[in-house]
Input
Amino acid sequence: TVNDIPIEELPLPVDFVWGAATAAYQIEGAAYEDGKGRSIWDTFTHLEPSRTNGENGDVTCDHYNRMPEDVELMASYGMDVYRFSIAWSRIIPLGGRNDPLNEKGIAFYNDLIDRLLAHKIEPVVTLFHWDTPQGIYDRYGAFLNTTEFRADFEHYARLCFSRFGDRVKKWITFNEPYIISVFGHHSGVLAPGRSTANGGDSRVEPWRVGHTIILSHTSVVQIYATEFQPSQFGTISIALNSHFYEPWDATSSVHIDAAQRRLEFYVGWFGDPIFLGKDYPASMRLQLGSRLPEFSPAEIELLRQSVPINTFYGMNHYSTKYARALPDPPAEDDCTGNVEEGPTNNKGEEIGPASGMSWLRVAPVGFRKLLNWVWNRYQLPIIVTENGCPCPGESQMTLEQAVDDKFRSRYIGLYLDAISRAIYEDGVPVQGYYVWSLMDNFEWSAGYGPRYGITHVNYNSLVRTPKNSASYLRKTFRERRVARQE
Ligand code: GBH
Output
């Protein structure tokens, strides 16, 4: 069990930053208030509620109306930073570059930013955390039309930089492009719910969507660097998620290669163009051929020029899996590098103790290896922009039980030990840790079942109660952050 892995409470640098992360659709609620437009998540949850456990984000934590109280909570936790996302359709209800703005939505984010700064909490803003305005999805399929999406995203980003950039100094363009591409446009378990079975084409759409994200990201970092950075002095990058993958059979080169290829299909897909300024990984070209879109010479040049603008790597990470090579040829709609992934290896050993989610196991060693993998490949300082877990059985617990979340504190403690080892033993520059999440919230296709918060939310009364992991975080960062003589 998780209690068998000793926590060492290893040190972290004095200037290491910690905070918590959220996303607009998961916490804001007020889905139809104050002029907000619909997003594809409003549509997805209402059209076929069975896809989200019968639940939706209409109200969720009602953060939109309780924001001042939530900022007080953050201040009481001693957080240095707060990562949140802007709901695009709250500030441009239809989403497009010629559509009207919603000043009430803009005022909400201004108020949030001002209150954070008044408490000396640094805002870290994600421009896009999955809630595409329905208006641009209806018009041209959003990510499926690279040229149109890119122009609309540029306009939206400019609006955010010009209205919030005097106070926001850290920007993340997209949250988890892999998930947008594959879960949204391949398996279809997340909005807009496209798959071959549901009006899409899983052989090509994920790759088109990924291509749109890369080019839109690149345009927007260029815009930031040329038009805003000279007067606003902030930084910008993207948040890429991935499990780490261990070979299913560690003695076989076939499975060792499969684990490496799986990471290239997960991280290299976006990381190589954005952080290395070059084409997709060779393993992807080899398997996918022309189904993977091409970058024109001008686009490669733009990618190349944009590399140094991304000054950090945003890593969302939760767990590790085993990768097992599948027999050739790969399925035409394969997105994995022809790999089967699972929690056990060829000896039947489990990758780590289970949490409250079947896919999420406690495997801090894999985390340390992923930090090394990313550093070796991209040579960029890393900020862990999401990490956390639900406790086993947490969805069934009473308030008293849920608040006593030892499992979560242990998970966090072990993952912080992994960061410490990566920094001091491996030389990987890790600069910060944002726990997922500030509070229990709407967990997409799983609805309100899983609870990831360091704050408990009662979804009837909307009362917030800090869990013990919140005080653990405060205490462990107070104690771990020490100056070290090298
Ligand atoms: C993040 O996604 C999201 O950014 C955040 O909004 C979310 O609430 C949080 O994590 C917790 O889930 O087939 O093994 O990949 C993480 C990406 C995608 C991880 C779906 C779990 C399903 C199982 N998630 N994935 S697996």
Residues 23, 26, 175-176, 179, 183, 241, 316, 359, 386, 436, 443, 452 surround GBH (CB under 6 Å). The chain has 16 helices and 13 strands. The mean pLDDT is 98.
